[in-house]
Automatic annotation (TrEMBL):
Keywords: Glycosyltransferase, Transferase. This is Anthranilate phosphoribosyltransferase. PANTHER family: ANTHRANILATE PHOSPHORIBOSYLTRANSFERASE. Residues 59-308 form the Glycosyl transferase family domain. InterPro entries: Anthranilate_Pribosyl_Tfrase (IPR005940), Glycosyl_Trfase_fam3 (IPR000312), Nuc_phospho_transferase (IPR035902). The lineage of its organism: Bacteria, Pseudomonadati, Acidobacteriota, Terriglobia, Terriglobales. NCBIfam families: trpD. The keyword Cytoplasm does not apply.
């Protein structure tokens, strides 16, 4: 094992015991262009060891988390997708954080919905049983990572830390729809998941212009991952929606308004709606609730149009606030 991936060196970085110069040198070796798959796996293992104990969850779950990192205005697609999948009966525990490179991360939107950011972990199994849905706040699960946050901010460039987030999910979901905004890191994530004993199936996706989700315009790249198996293929919408791309108004407040329009069936034309429909469709495929993306998208459209997703949101908010 090289010095760059030695556990003692990782522990020193993660615990903040390195000088600024030493930490910068370490982080420079962990950029997505320079890092090796060995470093990728070693970092995940080292960080996962810092997770707080999690409650037991009876059945397998799905996560639909993205890495972020596109640097462009962004609607909270995966957070909205979580509600769509839960409305279909999929047990979803979405891992997430506040925004790092966009205006609105998953917990920026959830906070404005009235979801407690640090929901008591002990109550998570009951919440999941009643609503099919729960959200895990990454800093709550990994409080020890605060020690490396300052070094990452000072370094100022993306590193592996920016791309391993979804893989740190402490409950190790059996099914995943994982978005990755960097091509090399997307391949690394697919390889890691194929070797993870908990993986039943995962779709690791990257959209047009390096989006960390499937996009309804342009061509998306998909790794279909099963135990020890990886298949890669492109996916292009057959009928791209006639919509304009997201704008710089994608603040948490604007996204909250858009969220309610979509889940209540009022918005069926925007780029955000089509992104939700597309990604939910693939989420239903990976969870075994749809045989094809087209079937999944049709199910997502019906769930939204008939008010089932809105009722799912209302049920979840009533439960999580008590």
């Amino acid at each position: 094992m090289t010095n760059e991936t030695h556990p003692d060196s990782l522990d020193a970085l993660l615990s903040g015991r390195l000088t600024d110069a030493e930490a910068d040198a370490w982080l420079s070796r962990l950029t997505p262009e320079q890092a090796t798959f060995e470093q990728f796996t070693a970092l995940i293992a080292a960080v996962r060891a810092l997770a707080l104990p999690m409650p037991d969850i009876a059945d397998d779950i799905l996560d639909c988390c993205g890495t972020g990192g596109s640097g462009r205005p962004h609607f909270n697609v995966s957070t909205t997708v979580a509600f769509v999948l839960a409305a279909r009966g999929v047990r979803v525990v979405k891992f997430g954080n506040r925004a790092a490179t966009s205006a609105s991360g998953s917990f920026d939107l959830l906070e404005r919905l009235g979801v407690p950011v640090e929901y008591p972990l002990a109550r998570l199994p009951v919440l999941l049983d009643v609503t099919n849905l729960a959200f895990l706040y990454a800093p709550q699960c990994y409080p020890a990572l605060k020690s490396v946050a300052a070094a990452r901010r000072r370094f100022g460039r993306p590193t592996l830390f920016n791309y391993i987030g979804p893989l740190l999910h402490p409950l190790r979901p059996a099914w995943r729809l994982m978005g990755v905004s960097h091509g090399r890191m997307q391949a690394f994530a697919a390889q890691w998941l194929a070797n993870d004993s908990q993986t039943r199936r995962a779709l690791v996706v990257r959209g047009d212009r390096d989006s960390d989700e499937l996009t309804p315009v342009g061509t998306s790249s998909i790794y279909d991952v099963r135990p020890r198996q990886i298949a890669k293929f492109p996916w292009t919408a057959t009928k791209p929606p006639d919509t304009s791309p997201p704008t710089a108004t994608d603040t948490p407040e604007a996204n909250l308004d858009r969220f309610w329009q979509i889940v209540s069936g009022q918005d069926t034309t925007s780029a955000a709606y089509h992104s939700v429909r597309l990604n939910a469709g693939f989420g239903l495929v990976v969870s075994g609730h749809a045989a094809t993306p087209e079937e999944g998208m049709a199910q997502a459209s019906e769930l939204l149009a008939t008010g089932q997703v809105k009722r799912q949101v209302e049920q979840f908010l009533a439960r999580v606030r008590t």
